[in-house]
From TrEMBL:
Protein name in the entry: Acyl-CoA dehydrogenase family protein
One Pfam family matching this protein: Acyl-CoA_dh_N
Gene3D superfamilies tied to this protein: Acyl-CoA dehydrogenase/oxidase, N-terminal domain, Butyryl-CoA Dehydrogenase, subunit A, domain 2, Butyryl-CoA Dehydrogenase, subunit A, domain 3
Cofactor requirements of the protein: FAD
Lineage of source species: Bacteria, Bacillati, Actinomycetota, Actinomycetes, Micrococcales
Domain Acyl-CoA dehydrogenase/oxidase N-terminal: 37-148
Alphabetically ordered keywords of this record: FAD, Flavoprotein, Oxidoreductase
Family: Belongs to the acyl-CoA dehydrogenase family.
Residue span(s) of domain Acyl-CoA dehydrogenase/oxidase C-terminal: 263-404
Organism listed in the record: Ornithinimicrobium cryptoxanthini
Disordered: annotated span: 1-25
Amino acid sequence: MTEQPSPMPDSAREVPDGADLGRSRGTDFFGLDDLLTTTERELRDGVRTWCDEEVVPRAAQFWEAAEFPRDLVPGYAATRVAGAAIEGYGCAGVSPLAEGMMCAELARGDGSIATLNAVHSGLAMTSVHELGSDEQRERWLPAMARVELLGAVALTEPTHGSDVVSLETTARRDGDHWVLDGAKRWIGNGSVCDLAVVWARDESGDVGGFVVEAPQEADGWDAEVITGKISNRGVWQAHIRLDGVRVPADNRLAEARTFADTNRVLMRSRQTVAWEALGHAVGAYEGALTYALRREQFGRPLAKNQLIQDALATMVTLITSMQLMCTRMSQLQERGECTLEQAAMAKLHCTVSAREVVALARDMLGGNGILLDHHVGRHFADLEAVYTYEGSRTVQSLLVGRAVTGMSAFT
């Protein structure tokens, strides 16, 4: 593997003489950084520094090897991004906006690390915090905030992705336990987690979240890592078979009774995914800008060509539109006013826009765009997972369409 260039241009040695070093070279044209408190900015910058120093230099290595970066987990825990917007329970207690920016920084560094966080924090910790009792929150959240317990959420099934509301996994009561049977697929962290929230339908037809502790050691739990992926290769998703997995009765999340409760978790996770898409776009843009400033063709830097500047301007404009939507979404979230449809629109817009940004970046690098060396190719591939998970583009569009017409087109 060749030496990895920095994802950010070093103004002291990479920018041509006379180049503008002001805000126009960055990705914060509208000064959204000013909305953070000093503490929040320090936490966000801590995530950025950790990614630049520890994650980015190794990302290509564990991406190509399809290895789960276990030794990065302590550093991830130290960033305090896990459950960052949760008040108490050992969490940072920052604003949803600051948490979103922290999540974007993870994705700017590497998609696999960002997905690990989206599953652990955006899904598992959110499930416990939003739907658990006070006792359940106290029991699990502090250790999850320290990432001493790595979480997973098992919702998607082999035959139910977009129509996951048709949940087939069952939970039957047997004395002081629930017994789980069924199968789950595409479960991030599923083969390495210490705690998994399994969604299943009970004998009354109600939907519940059942917390399986130490699932890798549980009788009837079989997690097989899905191989052959072209995206997010450094994080493992699993196909899980549940054959009589026993869960203590008090491990059923207290407030999880219907699929509407599940949607409360999905709304939060889609907000996280929107920020993730933004992070990928910024990472690809920075890689392309670095390349355009360094690479010379026909005796001058690529960045001095009109077509290149047009592409860069398009990319940073799309990034800015994503930032503005994510910022407003997070402000509504802080007030408890963000709706499922607004989260769907943010996920829809940000993943589609990020896809355009990474495609422009990949094109700008020519043949080098398919190499891991310049980071752009990794973002280009990893975004395909973000584009699909937590509901495809068409699912999000149907949610928005239902909101604007008052009629459901789901079949």
